[in-house]
Design brief:
hydrolase, M23 family metallopeptidase, Glucose Permease (Domain IIA), nine-stranded antiparallel sheet, EC 3.4.-.-, 1 helix, alpha+beta
Length: 196
C-alpha cells in the first residue's frame, strides 16, 4: 500500500476554524437581516392577496342585484331610463345617463372590488367595480377619479369619481354613464336602481 493513502488530511488550525465559523455566522446574520426586512412586505403582500381572493369568492357567492335593490350613483339626481337609445355607428345605449353639475361626486352603487380605474375610447375616464354575483358596475365619462386603485374594496355609497364629459361625451352636458354587465352582457340598470 502506498504510504500516502494512510495519511489523513491535516486538521485545520484553530484560527482557520474560528474564521470559518465567523464567516458562516456573518452570512447567516446577513440572511436573517434581509428576511427580517423583506418578510413584513412579503407577508403584507400575501395577506392582501389572500384577502382580495377571499372577497372575490365571497362576492361570487352573493345574489345578483334585483329590482330596486341598488342605490343611485347620484342620489339627489332624477333618473331617466335611457337604455337602448340610438348611438353613433349603429350602437344602442348599454346603460343610463345621469346628468349633474361637473365635479358632482359619483357613488358606488354596490359593495365590491375595484377592477379598473383608467381610460377607454368611448367612456373616457372610467371605473369598474365587480359586485355581488360577479356583476360589473361601469361608471364612464368621469372628470376625475376618487382616491381608489384596482383591487381596492368599496362599499355602496363610497365616492369613486366625479361627474364629467370625458371620452365620446366631450362637449355634452356633464353626466355619468352607468352600466351593469352580468356574465359579460349589458343589462338595463334602470329597473335595478332605487327611485325616490
Amino acid at each position: 500500500m502506498p504510504a500516502n493513502l494512510n495519511q489523513q488530511p491535516p486538521k485545520p488550525t484553530f484560527l482557520r476554524r474560528t474564521l470559518s465559523v465567523l464567516i458562516k455566522a456573518a452570512v447567516l446574520l446577513a440572511l436573517l437581516f434581509v428576511f427580517d426586512k423583506l418578510l413584513p412586505s412579503i407577508s403584507q403582500q400575501t395577506q392582501s392577496f389572500v384577502v382580495a381572493k377571499w372577497q372575490q369568492l365571497s362576492l361570487l357567492q352573493q345574489e345578483l342585484p334585483t329590482e330596486n335593490s341598488l342605490p343611485s350613483p347620484l342620489p339627489e339626481q332624477h333618473l331617466t331610463d335611457t337604455w337602448g337609445a340610438a348611438r353613433s355607428q349603429g350602437r344602442t345605449h348599454e346603460g343610463i345617463d345621469i346628468f349633474a353639475p361637473r365635479g358632482t361626486p359619483v357613488q358606488s352603487t354596490t359593495q365590491g372590488i375595484v377592477s379598473k380605474v383608467g381610460e377607454n375610447t368611448l367612456g373616457g375616464r372610467v371605473v369598474v367595480v365587480v359586485g355581488p354575483g360577479g356583476a360589473g358596475h361601469y361608471y364612464a365619462h368621469l372628470e376625475d377619479y376618487a382616491d381608489i386603485t384596482p383591487n381596492d374594496w368599496v362599499d355602496a355609497g363610497d365616492i369613486i369619481g366625479y361627474i364629467g364629459d370625458s371620452g365620446n361625451a366631450k362637449g355634452t352636458p356633464p353626466h355619468v354613464h352607468y352600466g351593469i354587465y352580468i356574465s359579460g352582457s349589458a343589462v338595463n340598470p334602470y329597473p335595478l336602481l332605487q327611485k325616490d
